[in-house]
Design a protein that fits this description.
This protein is an alpha/beta fold. The chain has 8 helices and 11 strands. 31% of the residues lie in helices and 19% in strands. Bound molecules: the ligand O=P(O)(O)OC[C@H]1O[C@H](O[C@H]2O[C@H](CO)[C@@H](O)[C@H](O)[C@H]2O)[C@H](O)[C@@H](O)[C@@H]1O. The site of the ligand O=P(O)(O)OC[C@H]1O[C@H](O[C@H]2O[C@H](CO)[C@@H](O)[C@H](O)[C@H]2O)[C@H](O)[C@@H](O)[C@@H]1O has 23 residues, from β5 and β6. This is Trehalose 6-phosphate phosphatase.
Length: 257
């Protein structure tokens, strides 16, 4: 695969850009369990500076719930699309439009938890989305995917299965990062600015597509295989270094090499 060029540094203070950030694998290195990731003060300060410089045109766009995002980044609160856009908080201190857990998904979650009883598989119940994490038990990934695919046949239409490298998620069809980003770009704080989206995963490709269609800048972190993003950054450290340059931090050795 041809290496993607790095994105040019942007000036966050230029009133030109709206920034959308995926979290896991983009801002935070992956950990064996979703609750094992940590946000350090350096990242918090960077996000606070970026939010100020961008005039508030900064939002998380993540598969996590907004409640989980707030716990991770406390005391920082940003506008956020959680659960791939099934939840929104349109302004930093606004209300969360949260999504509940339908009865059929609750029943399925119980069934799958019993199936994996004693195995090192974490079942994350996120309202209408069910995630099975096998990062700590990679040998169980194929079984987890099979179980969720079989369950799809029993559920009412309107769900899809999104397999990943370390787990699988069952989610409503309308959960998509592209639509989540567009919901923000219609708001006064974001509109008229060029959208920029950093993501690292298959689930971010839908966001890249929307960004490309809307004349924005799509950046895939640690690109592997096909991507719609025209730009790439090697990993989380490179993504943080690039964001720091955009926010006017002095160059570090790693960033300038
Ligand atoms: O859209 P994102 O912000 O990238 O969120 C995607 C999922 O992230 C979390 O799971 C992933 O990260 C965990 C911590 O590194 C890791 O243990 C897990 O294997 C990954 O799938 C989160 O728990 C999910 O709810 C998000 O959908």
């Amino acid at each position: 695969m041809k290496a993607l060029p790095q994105p040019p540094p942007l000036n966050f203070e230029a009133d030109e850009f709206a920034l959308f950030l995926d979290i896991d694998g983009t801002l935070l290195e992956h950990a064996a369990h979703p609750d094992a990731v940590r946000v350090d003060d350096d990242l918090l300060a960077l996000l606070q500076a970026a939010e100020r410089q961008l005039g508030g045109a900064l939002a998380f766009v993540t598969g996590r719930s907004i409640a989980a995002v707030d716990r991770l980044f406390a005391p920082l609160r940003l506008p956020a699309a959680g659960l791939y856009g099934l939840e929104h908080r349109l302004s930093a201190n606004g209300p969360v439009e949260a999504a509940g857990e339908p009865a059929d998904i609750a029943a399925l979650a119980e069934e799958i938890a019993a199936e994996f009883d004693g195995a090192n598989v974490y079942i994350e119940r996120k309202g209408p989305i069910l995630a099975l994490h096998t990062r700590a038990a990679p040998q169980l990934l194929a079984r987890a995917i099979r179980l969720v695919e079989q369950a799809l046949d029993r559920l009412p239409p309107g769900y899809r299965v999104l397999p990943g490298n370390a787990g699988v998620e069952l989610m409503p069809l309308e959960a998509a990062k592209g639509a989540a980003i567009r919901r923000f770009t219609e708001l006064p704080a974001f509109t008229g600015r060029r959208p920029v989206f950093l993501g690292d995963d298959t689930s971010d490709e839908n966001g890249f597509q929307a960004i490309n269609e809307d004349g924005g800048i799509a950046i895939r972190v640690r690109p592997q295989g096909d991507t719609l993003a025209p730009y790439g950054l090697g990993g989380v450290p490179e993504a943080i270094s690039w964001l720091k340059r955009c926010a006017g931090y002095p160059p570090t050795k790693a960033a300038s090499s």
